[in-house]
Task: inverse folding
């Protein structure tokens, strides 16, 4: 889940970043970082979204020593909670815009710009309004030349080495193919209805379109995208996925694993604070022990039964079959 909270001057994680991941770490758990960019060329400019233009915010990289050290502090904070963490490496392709060349960390370095893609085809903004639609025109990228492929591979190689230096337990190559894999994570294409309240979001009950991949991939398979406690339990029980990853519910509930097991209410995520700068909607979501059964400040609680039977209830149901 991109959060655009990196330091402006260095595009490195901050103390708030370390706190954010530590809050969501639990013994034996696995955290996968937000998209972490491998080079200036690979880095998108998030001012294409109005929320970032208004509130600021930057995405992190892992191509410099300062960025690597910033991630080391994040990793140490997660390991202190006895959890594991994977670094998600990304080249944003045509999503990256040439405006990154105006950033102080890039300007005058001779970095490869504008960004490249498989073809010189600009990204088209969504035809419908919504939280993820750009309201700025996308610049046409340059088509990657055959003799540049090795350069991009080297960028990934350097980023992976930096991830090792930072102490990450795994490296995840975003959208990559052809590697002896530790796991494969697939996103279900059902993240629509983005402006609806959670209890009214019908997309979370849509069929699992990626279920067919279980027939061709027998390794560790992780599913993400629109899962509720009930549907996550069912997907694992039916053998479609080995694990299920949560994004929106995890960012709003630092103690999500414990809440799922106990069946306690969940903090409702505040979509307007998904992207931008500052602690609001980032590190100020409370644990359940801080709220009890009521409401804490501006973050209301929702019973898990309103978005699907709780994990605790689903287990009881399986036990009685």
Result:
């Amino acid at each position: 889940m991109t959060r655009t909270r990196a330091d402006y001057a260095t595009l490195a994680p901050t103390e708030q970043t370390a706190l954010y991941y530590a809050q969501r770490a639990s013994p034996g758990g696995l955290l996968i970082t937000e998209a972490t960019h491998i080079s200036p060329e690979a880095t998108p400019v998030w001012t294409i979204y109005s929320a970032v233009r208004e509130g600021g915010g930057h995405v992190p990289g892992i191509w410099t020593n300062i960025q690597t050290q910033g991630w080391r502090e994040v990793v140490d904070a997660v390991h202190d909670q006895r959890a594991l963490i994977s670094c998600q490496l990304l080249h944003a392709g045509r999503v990256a815009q040439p405006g990154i060349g105006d950033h102080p960390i890039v300007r005058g370095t001779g970095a490869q710009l504008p960004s490249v893609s498989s073809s010189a085809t600009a990204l088209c903004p969504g035809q419908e309004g919504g939280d993820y639609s750009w309201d700025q025109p996308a610049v046409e990228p340059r088509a990657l030349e055959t003799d540049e492929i090795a350069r991009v591979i080297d960028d990934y190689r350097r980023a992976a080495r930096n991830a090792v230096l930072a102490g990450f337990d795994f490296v995840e190559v975003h959208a990559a193919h052809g590697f002896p894999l530790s796991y494969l994570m697939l996103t279900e294409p059902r993240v629509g209805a983005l402006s609806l309240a959670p209890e009214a979001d019908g997309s979370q009950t849509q069929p699992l379109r990626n279920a067919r991949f279980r027939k061709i991939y027998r390794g560790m398979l992780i599913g993400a995208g629109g899962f509720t406690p009930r549907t996550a339990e069912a997907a694992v029980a039916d053998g479609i996925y080995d694990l299920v990853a949560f994004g929106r519910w995890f960012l709003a509930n630092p103690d999500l694993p414990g809440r799922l097991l106990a069946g306690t209410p969940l903090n409702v995520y505040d979509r307007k604070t998904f992207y931008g700068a500052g602690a609001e909607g980032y590190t100020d979501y409370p644990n359940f022990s801080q709220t009890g059964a009521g409401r804490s400040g501006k973050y209301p609680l929702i019973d898990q039964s309103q978005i699907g039977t709780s994990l605790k209830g689903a287990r009881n149901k399986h036990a009685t079959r």
